[in-house]
Known about the structure:
By secondary structure, the chain is mainly alpha-helical. Helix content is 63%, strand content 0%. It has 4 helices and no strands. The protein has helices spanning 11-20, 27-32, 34-53, 56-60. The longest helix is centred in the C-terminal third of the chain and has 20 residues, at 34-53. The two termini are 29 Å apart.
Amino acid sequence: MARTKTPEPDEVALEIAHGLLATRLSFEEAMNHPTWKVVIKTRARKHMQQRDKFDLKKLQSNDKD
């Protein structure tokens, strides 16, 4: 099974992912460190997937699938 190309996380998702991780490094320092950069990007992609599943208008209209 071929992997699909996941989009690069946006800046907001990266900062949220950094906040969720237990690190004392600042965001800039963590993004300059190769290992933390991979971890933050991976967590940010997961956050983006969860964010896409959340549909505020659907919740406001109380529409259930």
